[in-house]
Design brief:
three-stranded antiparallel sheet, 13 helices, globular
């Protein structure tokens, strides 16, 4: 195992130091900034919440098999508590059944990248937008009656609406942060609300941030999370939120400003937060970060 792998394992709580309490989970997410709930079939360089809860990356369930794993049930209960307390936010940018979690302190930056600039305006159906008619109807229902469960939504919208179609419509709204899951119970499933009502301060802050400023801050936070990464890994991750050309421009600008620097790890040239700025992720203009009990990892020296 390389020094880089070891530093990531420590930061991602895969070294036996499991995250089990609410405070530990909140501090973990604030430390890493982002995580998937479960491992992805197509691997993404980002920690997982289930891995931190277990304290290991051995034999972790993916989302398709989580229902049969008692560890996943307990981890989900803890994750839902984070959502209820607005200590974490979910987004639907990778796999619709695998939650992508964002720490509360950096969520306004994330909203600036993918959220609507006028969130209270009703979405318009295709061909004039990315939303289906069912998504527009679901948005109006959630705005009127939310928080509301998916089962209740289907009853109100009509029994001819299938759960598959409703899931797709909710995914359209969720991917642009129009709506968010705010609670869950086994009998009724997930409850949804419009995000601007559920968390107005975070949405307002995100609306007032520029894409360029937000992308720079999130690039720094991501590098703090993964310790170091190559440019392809950075473009692959952030290409889920903005065009890769914008990611490349932001990386080049941060390198030119000496906020990022290159480091040689084995035969790879990786990008890291510049050593003098290693404690400034995200950048100083952003929200103050809450740190966990462990110090921020520093890049490996070779």
């Amino acid at each position: 195992m390389t020094d880089l792998d070891q530093l990531r394992r420590e930061k991602w709580h895969l070294d036996g130091h499991a995250v089990r309490t609410f405070d530990d989970a909140r501090l973990f997410l604030e430390s890493v900034g982002f995580c998937m709930m479960y491992p992805m079939r197509q691997p993404v360089l980002v920690p997982t919440f289930i891995g931190a809860w277990v304290g290991s990356d051995e034999q972790l369930p993916d989302w398709q098999h989580a229902f049969a794993d008692p560890r996943a049930q307990e981890a989900t209960e803890l994750m839902v508590r984070l959502l209820r307390e607005r200590a974490a936010y979910e987004a639907n940018r990778f796999d619709e059944n695998n939650a992508f979690l964002v720490a509360a302190s950096i969520f306004p930056y994330f909203y600036a990248l993918v959220g609507e600039r006028n969130p209270k305006s009703a979405p318009k159906p295709k061909p004039h937008s990315d939303y289906s008619q069912l998504a527009c109807d679901a948005f109006e229902l959630i705005r009127r009656d939310g928080p509301i469960s998916k089962h209740k939504m289907r009853d109100v919208l009509g029994g001819s609406v299938s759960f598959v179609a409703l899931d797709h419509a909710l995914g359209e709204l969720w991917s642009r942060l129009r709506i968010t899951r705010v609670d869950y119970n086994p009998s009724e499933g997930a409850f949804w609300d419009v995000l601007y009502r559920w968390s107005p301060d975070a949405v307002r802050a995100g609306m007032n941030l520029s894409v360029g400023e937000s992308l720079s801050a999130l690039l720094s936070k991501y590098l703090d999370c993964v310790v170091a990464a190559d440019q392809q890994e950075l473009e692959s991750f952030f290409g889920n939120f903005v065009p890769r050309s914008r990611v490349k421009e932001a990386i080049n600008a941060l390198l030119a400003a000496r906020e990022l620097s290159f480091i040689r790890v084995g035969n790879r040239s990786l990008i890291q937060i510049a050593p003098s700025r290693a404690e400034q992720a995200p950048r100083a203009s952003g929200p103050r970060q809450e740190r966990g009990p462990r110090k921020t990892s520093t890049p490996p020296r070779v």
